[in-house]
Write a structure and sequence with these properties.
Helix content is 37%, strand content 24%. It is α/β, with parallel strands linked by helices. The protein has 2 domains: 141 residues, Rossmann fold, CATH 3.40.50; 77 residues, no CATH class.
Length: 243
């Protein structure tokens, strides 16, 4: 069995007296989609921030292809093949959609510039559902289209590991099915995906495994159907009275 692409071991991060992530361990294999689940406040986004370099871990280890990367700056991780989207969308509003994607192409692993980069930006915008919107300022897009743009910029980095923080949230049923199909196609290209998500239809459709957090700790791990039926997971989401 080959070594995992991502190996998180004993990950810890505290804010003052609050331990947001407490000894979290899990792996993401090559070409695998792993769901990182849990109720609000369970530490999912903090864990994603530690993996992506937005926060430095307080303890534990993050390995990418066997290499320690915990605490590494996001731009260095991007060049190693890690890209992400954010729960609160972060686009460059004064730049056009194409320019947002060009920023990813310029500073990613391949360092694309000029006409080839512009053509590639157009291809990526088409892929996420923004065909014909390359010249529009990012700031005039709807929230859903800004999420699409952020994904296109992440894909411009040619990531081997893609971190998605509630990217499917807020989509209507048709958009959701399109989004699921898009994420599935990214995995078919060989990418590994770690997704924080609350949309259970997407979790069931996409994830090979799920890791469930509560109060900063891992409480369950396994195939989606088994994990979602776990009594401790139900208790974490709904409370003791409904478990």
């Amino acid at each position: 069995m080959s070594a995992p692409l991502l190996d998180v071991s004993g990950l810890t991060r505290a804010f003052g007296g609050l331990v947001a992530v407490d000894g979290l361990s899990f792996t993401v294999g090559r070409g695998e989609i792993v769901g990182l689940l849990g109720p609000n406040g369970s530490g999912k986004t903090t864990a994603l921030n530690c993996i992506s370099g937005a926060l430095a871990p307080g303890g534990g280890q993050v390995l990418l292809e066997g290499r320690p990367v915990g605490g590494m700056a996001p731009h260095r991780l991007a060049r190693l093949g890690v890209a992400r989207t954010f729960q609160l969308v972060r686009v460059l509003p004064s730049l056009s959609c194409a320019e947002n994607v060009l920023a990813g192409l310029a500073f990613g692993r391949e360092g694309a510039w000029g006409a080839p980069a512009l053509a590639r930006a157009g291809t990526l915008l088409d892929r996420v559902g923004l065909a014909g919107k390359g010249s529009l300022p990012a700031g005039v897009l709807t929230y859903v289209d800004q999420k699409r743009l952020e994904l296109a910029r992440a894909l411009a980095l040619s990531p081997s590991l893609l971190l998605l923080d509630e990217w499917l949230a807020g989509l209507n049923p048709t958009e959701l099915q399109d989004g699921i199909a898009l994420i599935r196609s990214l995995r078919e290209e060989g990418r590994s995906i770690l997704m924080v998500e609350h949309v259970m239809d997407a979790i069931r459709s996409l994830c090979d495994r799920c890791v469930v957090m509560a109060a900063g700790r891992r409480i369950a791990e396994g195939p989606p159907e088994a994990v979602l039926a776990d009594r401790e997971v139900i208790r974490a989401y709904l409370g003791d009275g409904d478990a």
